[in-house]
Prior knowledge:
By secondary structure, this protein is of the alpha+beta class. Helices cover about 55% and strands about 10% of the residues. The radius of gyration is 31 Å and the shape is elongated. Residues about 1-10 have low confidence and may be disordered.
Amino acid sequence: MDNVTNSSQPQQTQQPGPTPIEAWERLCAAFSADPELWLEVHQAISDPASYFARHQQTLAEWDCYSPDQISPWLALTQWLAAKDHLVELNSRDSSDELWAAFQDMPQVAHSSADLTPVYQEQVHLIHGVIRANRILAPTGLSILRLDTGADTFSLTIIPSASVPGVIELAASLGYNARQFSNADASAAIQAGWRGYSNQSLKGPWYPAAGTIGKRIGALAIDAFALVAIMNLAVFGGIAINGANNNESGVIFGVLIAVSLLYMFALAAVCGQTGATLGMLVFGLRIVQHDTLGKAGFGRCLGRGAMIFLVIFWIWALVLLITTASDKSGRIRGIQDRASGTSVLDIRRGLNPFTTN
Length: 356
């Protein structure tokens, strides 16, 4: 009886997904209501030789020289570019070039969005895209990157509601469409810092290396603070216990202990905040070199121990020479390289401790 009951229950069947042809047609409709786009893509699928013959001169600009290189994705991106629905930039372009490219896009012209804040020289392209996305969001539009090459940024603007479907359809067809996020901005900052030079992009979005003059000034303040603490410890002890010529060894031990405690305390504070007293005065911060994150106690302790040896003038000369001779422009001495840290000037550039 149970078997009869179970067999009479309707069985749920999984709805089949769209065929590749249906997926391409839907993708075209998501990008544009103009039926011409689907006709172009359909010909690239069904008759790539005819498509190549029609567009041979234009395709050469896209490094396409044979019908074998024709794909529906190429047809789609080429049509969007021809209609000013897509702009082609590269990783070396900056935010002001993005602004100029977007001015000719009908999606921007028909919206109420004012992209003027995007026009900033020496601001990385990715940061410009993220800023433009925030400006476009209230108008119901979003920027999408279509993958057309490793160093190429093929950017289009579509309704925000269509973005998830477009990304999913493109992925189902073996292509990549994606939005930019804060993670992309962070990666751009880190990549820019690793390739930093004195001619790099500058401003509050980008790290700036702390100069030797400021670093020497900060070290002088920290050394003065240490000497002041040592004097307080010595004279405080004398005031309490009275002067005794036989206690010179004890005084020396106290000075060593105070110096070590001071170095450990600085490492703990600097590892979390990136700054010593002297660095606060000069607007410097110590960060982990590769990630621009907090340096941590261990790195700051190792770096501090190497700097502490400046009491030997020859070592002080080594630190100065290695820092000044850093050809990368990041002004990293042997103490920075050994500890995996960098010193940033947050008054001239990015402050990783306050920037999201």
